[in-house]
């Protein structure tokens, strides 16, 4: 069918938006849908239609009903010196945002931290979780099933998980029982992948094994909401999900005063009264100033699942004056769900952004690239916290956004 004829049929509703690929290739289908939408709605979608990435590689893997792209400006902050276990050296951090002053702020934090000798990062835990829901005859049966699963992790790995993934490894389970409901919060290692597809597909296989073993127990939902994916929650805050990582640094007083225009005492006091007391009063899971800003901008730049910015924004910022009069500052991030393979990381622009940090693709050995990436993200988040806290302490926040944000 000719291009114009296809557009007409889509406008008239004779061909549905998702059926265009039946008549043409994926790149043309993308153009047809956009033109049809322009005609039907009387709008011009010129910029949405300008792109270099190839719909052939994306439709069916990353997107449906594709009509083009959205362009978000990308800036870079750095260099940031990181003294991590996986990330060692100086890094530039790509940030996709439209919030003026954000990149400048992270850049200032990077500059202060690097001059101070760098950020020390420590990975505390690394797991992806899925918690299917099983309906049991009663709580006692639920407990029996939970005990059996806990005692048979290796068997389940062999019988279910290793059938569907090479990098996914079941390392344990945390069961929760509510009445006759059993939630099995499975914990997996997922190599360099963020892992949600991997653990979801694996969990479905596990359900087959459990139903075979316990015919009176009914698997009801692959996600029972104790995973917890893409929602603010205490579970991930306490138990972690994805990478649990801490970044910390000591900034000499002289650098705080010269580069950040304030003092260690004021930063520590603002942090205590704002990030700790203020957040407690608000019932927030973010005992921090703006993890979400940095996590969000890195997620968008590097093809992470943007809905998981929710849990990435959880965490605690601490600031103290050391006995020497310098500033100790740290960020604790319990739930940073990120990967360097799979999902949006394979889209060429996002992959290029990962390559800026030297973390595109799988690591050698597998898992090390994603861990390195987690350390870099935590370092960048520390830079953002440091700069914003300093700006608030110095009463520069409104001024900065007047100058750079409007
Ligand atoms: C804007 C600054 C950095 C000025 O800060 P300054 O100290 O006046 O700037 P400066 O000209 O003296 O330069 C100091 C350093 O800042 C960097 N810098 C300075 N300007 C630029 C620029 N144009 N582009 C790139 N980098 C820049 C640069 O690193 C430079 O050092 P150098 O590397 O040259 O040695 C500062 O006032 C600041 O960080 N303000 C805070 C802004 C911020 O963090 N905004 C985040 C968004 S706020 C929000 O969304 C969350 C919120 C606030 O609602 C959450 C809450 O409730 O707390
Ligand atoms: N299904 C769901 O419920 C949900 C899905 N998502 C989406 O899931 C996607 C991410 O899922 P995810 O499982 O991370 O990605 P993928 O589904 O892309 O799985 C990763 C793939 O990469 C392979 N692989 C190659 N090298 C490595 C390596 N070094 N480390 C790990 N895996 C490697 C894996 O092979 P192998 O498996 O054989 O090891 C697997 O095929 C995102 O698009 C996200 O938006 C998000 C939330 C929920």
From TrEMBL:
Keywords: NADP, Oxidoreductase. The keyword Oxidoreductase applies. InterPro entries: HMG_CoA_Rdtase (IPR002202), HMG_CoA_Rdtase_cat_sf (IPR023074), HMG_CoA_Rdtase_CS (IPR023076), HMG_CoA_Rdtase_eu_arc (IPR004554), HMG_CoA_Rdtase_N (IPR023282), HMG_CoA_Rdtase_NAD(P)-bd_sf (IPR009023), HMG_CoA_Rdtase_sub-bd_dom_sf (IPR009029). Its EC number is 1.1.1.34. The keyword Lyase does not apply. It holds the Pfam family HMG-CoA_red. Pathway: Metabolic intermediate biosynthesis; (R)-mevalonate biosynthesis; (R)-mevalonate from acetyl-CoA: step 3/3. One of its GO terms (molecular function) is hydroxymethylglutaryl-CoA reductase (NADPH) activity. It catalyses: (R)-mevalonate + 2 NADP(+) + CoA = (3S)-3-hydroxy-3-methylglutaryl-CoA + 2 NADPH + 2 H(+). It is an enzyme of class 1 (oxidoreductase). Belongs to the HMG-CoA reductase family. This is 3-hydroxy-3-methylglutaryl coenzyme A reductase.
């Amino acid at each position: 069918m000719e291009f114009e004829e296809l557009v007409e049929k889509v406008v008239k509703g004779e061909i549905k938006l998702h059926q265009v690929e039946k008549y043409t290739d994926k790149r043309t289908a993308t153009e047809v849908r956009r033109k049809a939408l322009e005609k039907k709605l009387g709008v011009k979608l010129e910029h949405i239609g300008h792109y270099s990435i190839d719909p052939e590689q994306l439709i069916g893997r990353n997107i449906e009903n594709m009509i083009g792209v959205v362009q978000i400006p990308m800036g870079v902050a750095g260099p940031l010196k990181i003294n991590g276990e996986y990330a060692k050296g100086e890094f530039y951090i790509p940030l996709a945002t439209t919030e003026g002053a954000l990149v400048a702020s992270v850049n200032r934090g990077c500059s202060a931290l690097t001059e101070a000798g760098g950020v020390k990062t420590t990975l505390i835990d690394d797991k992806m979780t899925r918690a299917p829901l099983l309906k049991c005859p009663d709580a006692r049966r639920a407990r029996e099933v939970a005990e059996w699963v806990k005692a048979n992790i290796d068997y389940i790995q062999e019988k279910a998980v290793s059938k569907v993934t090479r990098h996914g490894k079941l390392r344990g389970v945390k069961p929760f029982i509510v009445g006759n409901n059993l939630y099995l919060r499975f914990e997996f290692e997922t190599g360099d992948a963020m892992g949600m597809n991997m653990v979801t597909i694996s969990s479905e296989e596990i359900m087959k094994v459990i139903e075979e073993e316990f015919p009176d127990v009914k698997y009801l939902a692959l996600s029972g909401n104790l995973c917890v994916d893409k929602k603010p929650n205490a579970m991930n805050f306490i138990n972690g999900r994805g990478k649990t990582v801490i970044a910390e640094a000591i900034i000499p007083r002289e650098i705080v005063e010269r580069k950040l225009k304030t003092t260690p005492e004021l930063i520590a006091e603002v942090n205590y009264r704002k990030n700790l007391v203020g957040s407690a009063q608000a019932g927030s899971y973010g005992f921090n100033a703006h993890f979400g800003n940095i996590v969000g901008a890195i997620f968008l730049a590097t093809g992470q699942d943007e809905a998981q910015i929710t849990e990435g924004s959880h965490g605690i910022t601490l600031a103290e004056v050391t006995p020497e009069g310098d500033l100790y500052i740290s960020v604790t991030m319990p739930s940073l769900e990120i990967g360097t393979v799979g999902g949006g990381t394979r889209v060429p622009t996002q992959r290029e952004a990962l390559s800026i940090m030297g973390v595109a693709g799988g690591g050698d050995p597998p898992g090390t690239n994603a861990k390195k990436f987690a350390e870099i993200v935590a370092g960048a988040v520390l830079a953002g916290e440091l700069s914003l806290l300093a700006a608030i302490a110095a009463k520069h926040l409104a001024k900065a956004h007047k100058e750079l944000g409007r």
